Amino acid sequence: MITFDKSPALTRCFHDLSLSMVSMQEFLRKLLPYMEKPLTEKEEKDVLFLFSQYGVPQHSLKISPKLLKNHPYFRNIQLKEIQTETVSYKETVIPKRRLMNTDFMKPLGRHLFHYHPLGYFEEDIRMPALHEGHTIWMAPAVSEFTSMEEGIRKGHGKCLTFGLGIGLIVYMWLRKEEVTEVTIVEFNEDVIQLFQKHILPQFPEGKSVNIIHGDAFDYFTEDFLEQFDYVYVDFWESTEDGLPYYTKLMETGVDLPQVDFWIEDAILMDVKYLTFLYLKHVYEGKAPSDFMFQQDFSLAKYARKIHFFFQHLEMTICSPEELLSLIHSRNVLRSILSI
Ligand SMILES: C[S@@+](CC[C@H](N)C(=O)[O-])C[C@H]1O[C@@H](n2cnc3c(N)ncnc32)[C@H](O)[C@@H]1O
């Protein structure tokens, strides 16, 4: 069972962590009215003022359209408007001056404050997006490219990705000399057919692209994954559906160093907050099991995992540094979800 060697420094650290959560919620509440709508000049100043008030290190909201227009995929790959039974490529317009997220959450400071980098284009931007019903699998959002950069950079040798979308990562991998072949597991046949007919012919030739029509969960096994040098898992739309899918993958117990997950740190954020609240509950001397009953239905499952993990962890936290490294450890959060 986790225990604490209580001290004024540790009490102070718990207090600062709580404050950082409150201040983040306040920041997000103040920001919300400005999101996803065109900003007036006065509103732009208000947003930048909010940033400076909360110490967010971003001093301009303007994003150059070149960021999209010079991106190799959007410069070289033409997508027509196409509709199949389940999916379509449709033109999407991002209106000028609309404030949007340009990346997923980033930590600020050593406590729990996180922010989304934000921005707007100075002109309307038109790009095709992949729709399935109400789900937009892949849109011309800057956040999509920035959040995939690491996966693109790390691709080498035989690469595997779960989730085809518009094949953005596949294209970027094929352009790299160090990538020899690419395999994709995709479960929607229409997505595969659209890709094979309209997108793949525009990709560089000479390297093999294998598409497996199947469910990611059936292929997420050590035996299958070990055939590849690098694996990128991206079959969720956002952090919302990402957390249950990612949890299911963790529950398989498969843990290989060459596997990365799209927006993993953002997905883990709710688990991190819940872990902090659990540890605070224990530090304050409250019954650990009560914690689970205080969570609403959507979080109860994760609260149970957290309780189980810390109940079986023989560790005494003595300093703020130990507390912070525990809360921020990706390995700890992965282990919690794997239960
Ligand atoms: C966000 S998109 C992937 C975007 C892709 N990384 C790209 O570069 O364009 C997610 C894709 O995962 C597919 N998908 C959803 N659930 C899946 C599952 N269980 N197994 C395999 N593919 C799945 C969707 O049909 C969709 O094509």
UniProtKB/TrEMBL annotation:
Lineage top rank: taxon: Bacteria
Annotated SUPFAM superfamilies: S-adenosyl-L-methionine-dependent methyltransferases
InterPro entries: SAM-dependent_MTases_sf (IPR029063)
Protein name from the UniProt record: Spermidine synthase
Originating species: Proteiniclasticum ruminis
